[in-house]
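Morning F.,

Quick status update on the modeling queue. The single chain you submitted on Monday has been processed. Sequence for confirmation:
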Amino acid sequence: PLFLPLPRRSSRDVNSPAPVDCRLSQWSGWTDCFPCQEKKHRYRRLEQPAQFGGRRCTGHLWEEQACRAETECTGPPGCGQDFQCRETGRCIKRHLVCNGDTDCRDGSDEDNCEDEDIESPCEHLLPIPGVEKAVQGYNILTQERRQNIYDPEFFGGFCEYVYNGEWRELRYDAACERLHYGDEEKYFRKPYNFHLYQFLAHADSGFTFEFYEDSKDLLEALKSDKSNSIGFTIGIGPGSGIVMVHPGFTFSRGKGTLKNFTQYDRKEVGFIRAVTKVQTARFKMRRDNIVLDEDVLLSLQDLPDTYNYGMYAKFINDYGTHFLTSGTMGGIFEYILVINKEEMRRK
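Structure tokens below.
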């Protein structure tokens, strides 16, 4: 016998719209076999997104399958007098071969060098923190960052550097229970694709302050906040004797936790939350002769000459609709003071 599940009844407001389930189209036919990939692809479309609590779709919009091509892979075009990276076909200048830098992702430009102990003259320079955010693509339709467009690790043989200036790393000293800035000077190596990169130490003219009666109200406010910034850090710093402090409050992309948060779950404790926007750097990318990330280079080579919706839609899904040409790095800095309300009343 065949037993069918009984339909479930659920209550909803009379004026609320009925749930709409997600719906996908049927799979397209398989593409021809791409000889260089030895893969074929197919796709399907999103016909109806889930709405009003309806069921979400499962599975992928694209599929690929191994295949045997009937034609030979011709490979990427040659590089003439320049050197061609073995894995991706990227062309680099001959003076970059055996220079101590890995200018090809597979390291083929540093293979079979006469001097096997070549060291890069720029090894003392540090990578710029957060530079990977500037090289990513951006999908303006979904407002999401996508995979790299620029290559953040290609330097073109240059040792151009950026001085940290007034920028210092904020650290917590566990022994002294205080926040402080490191004093060491740092020099960061500027990738080739960056025309300009400058560290800043700018904040808005002032903080916005909010007071919360207890930890529950504060936690609810933090959970409800949404941030489009790259990330931000919350510090709990020292004050006078009426302020109780505890370190370790770190956020990223608008989400975070506070260590030992339950110790503040008392009626006599309140919280002051100060918020400001901080600019940490500004940048401008090259406009000419940019060097693409090797993954996007391979993806461009794989696109068919004849338009195929599935293949081109997947490229946009992977790398976005736009890429950055200039901008400002930064985020939101929050500072939370833990206040003893009884002591405040006495003062």
